[in-house]
Specification:
Elements lengths: L1 H10 L3 E4 L4 H14 L4 E4 L2 H19 L4 E3 L11 E5 L1 H9 L8 E4 L5 H9 L1 E3 L1 H10 L4 H15 L9 E3 L2 H11 L13 H11 L4 E8 L4 E8 L2 H5 L8 E5 L9 H7 L7 E4 L9 E4 L12 H14 L8 E4 L3 H15 L3 E3 L9 E4 L1 H7 L8 E4 L10 H12 L4 H17 L1 H4 L4 E4 L3 H4 L3 H7 L3 E4 L8
Parallel strand pairs: 1-10, 1-11, 2-4, 2-5, 3-4, 5-10, 12-17, 12-18, 13-15, 13-16, 14-15, 16-17
Antiparallel strand pairs: 6-9, 7-8, 8-9
Helix pairs in contact: 1-2, 2-3, 6-7, 7-8, 8-9, 12-13, 15-16
């Protein structure tokens, strides 16, 4: 990997590397050539990793390599000729590249590139809060009654929506009409575009709703809501920013193939212009033990809840020693609460729900988002249980809108969108457990009886199928 990064830096050749591990395991492989390079280099990482790199990892590596490269957290073009290593966060980097403030001759290394689509989507999204509505009333004092009346109508409509796990909903026609009337207030205010930027953006998003996902998020406990707008297809918003920019994209997993075509298409990148490398798990040292029972009810079967509860209790009880935690991933909120309660009745305070405070003998019940966000910070589990396959829910408005977009194009939305996303989530969530050849239990019988189950199992290779769980030998 280090040789590939060094080659990309030397030739300014764009590269995509799928490492199969998280950044804690691969960071020396890109930092070393970046520090030894005679040219300036940009490293883009999330703020927490940026701080770790600047304060801990880079100084330690510089001392060991005996290098004296300038380290900076703010990009300045006048430092480029001084062989500087810039370590900046995603937001600052996007500000630079979208406004064409980066020198095209400098290579950019992007950490955790698997998150890049979500990061760019968040950057390009707009959110209107209650404070923004208040500011709008101050800006248009003669229209305050009009704003209040329409906000009251909008609030009433929003709170009639049934509760869902995401507290988010796509805007419906009546809500869109009200928002369009409110946003029309800014139509002729050309001299105050900066002050009214959010409303100007929403006016455009509402008029071009086939290009945007327009939705709202409710915080029922606080009695507030926000109106949100995100681009439907990133490539149309950002494909121009990649021109002549040498990139080295480092990720844990993007796709099953070496050339991540769908990933590139999402970002407007032509992967044919990239050198691509994909590391596969070592067949001996990173073999998974995979347990998936047959004759198990499907998740939509009324019997599933009781059967999955019994199976999880049996699996957890099968652990004879407690040197590693057990992780149970459940996205369904009522089922998550029931299983947590049942486990606590048997195992007491060992059971934790969505908590970072776990020990070697803990049993952690969490959703997939929590696990993906924090697995690198938690102790490596010996048993990882999935109650269901991590197929994204259509109740999530962002997922639902993407599925509708595929349907409108008459494309196979499941095999082209939901299934690759589920495989990606499964790959990313099982990386830490490979280190100690732990056990993954898939309690979703669709893996046995649906045609796409073969794709799911193939993505987990190398693995050894087991018919029962006996963890005493661990």
């Amino acid at each position: 990997m280090a040789r590939m990064v060094a080659r990309g830096l030397r030739l300014k050749r764009s590269t995509i590397i799928q490492t199969g591990v998280n950044y804690q395991q691969y960071y020396p492989s890109y930092l070393t050539p970046a520090l030894l390079s005679s040219s300036s280099v940009i490293i883009v990482a999330e703020k927490e990793i940026q701080q770790q790199l600047v304060k801990e990892k880079i100084p330690r590596l510089q001392q060991w390599l005996n290098t004296h490269k300038i380290i900076a957290t703010n990009y300045k073009q006048d430092l480029i000729n001084n062989s500087t290593l810039y370590v900046i966060n995603h937001h600052d980097w996007l500000d630079l590249i979208i406004n064409h403030l980066l020198d095209n001759d400098i290579v950019t290394i992007i950490e955790e590139a698997e998150n890049l689509p979500d990061i760019i989507t968040k950057y390009l999204s707009q959110e209107i809060t209650s404070q923004d509505w208040y500011n709008l009333g101050l800006f248009f004092p003669h229209h305050q009654n009009f704003i209040r009346e329409n906000l009251a109508k909008l609030t009433k409509l929003i709170y009639t929506h049934p509760i869902n796990p995401y507290n988010s909903y796509l805007l419906e026609e009546e809500e869109t009409i009200i928002l369009r009337q409110l946003c029309n207030l800014v139509e002729n205010e050309k001299n105050h575009q900066k002050v009214l930027a959010k409303f100007i953006h929403f006016q455009k998003a509402l008029s071009e709703n086939k290009k945007y996902i327009n939705y709202f998020t409710v915080n029922r406990s606080q009695g507030t809501f926000t109106i949100n707008s995100s681009p439907l297809e990133l490539r149309f918003s950002i494909n121009h920013i990649w021109k002549n920019v040498p990139l080295i994209l480092l990720s844990n997993y993007l796709e099953s193939q070496k050339y991540p075509i769908n990933y590139g298409e999402c970002l407007g990148l032509n992967v044919d212009n990239f050198t691509c490398l994909k590391f596969s798990p070592d067949g001996e040292s990173q073999n998974l033990n995979l347990y998936f029972p047959h004759n198990f009810p499907f998740p939509n079967n009324p019997e599933f809840q009781n059967r999955v509860t019994q199976e999880i209790l049996a699996l957890v009880s099968s652990l004879k020693i407690n040197h590693h935690p057990i992780i149970i991933i459940i996205d369904d909120v009522p089922l998550q609460a029931q299983i947590t309660s049942n486990l606590a009745a048997y195992f007491g305070s060992r059971v934790q729900l969505n908590s970072l405070n776990i020990g070697e003998n803990s049993i952690l019940v969490c959703d997939i988002k929590f696990w993906l966000n924090y697995q690198s910070e938690l102790l490596t589990p010996i048993l990882l249980i999935f109650a269901t396959l991590p197929i994204p829910s259509l109740e999530n408005p962002l997922i639902g809108a993407q599925v509708a977009h595929y349907k409108n194009q008459k494309k196979d939305w499941f095999r082209l969108y939901l299934l690759p996303l589920a495989i990606k989530i499964l790959q990313q969530s099982t990386m830490s457990i490979r280190k100690n050849q732990g056990v993954i239990a898939l309690l979703d019988n669709r893996v046995n009886y649906r045609s796409y189950g073969v794709n799911i199992l193939r993505s987990l290779e190398p693995y050894a199928k087991i018919n029962y769980v006996d963890l005493y030998w661990q």
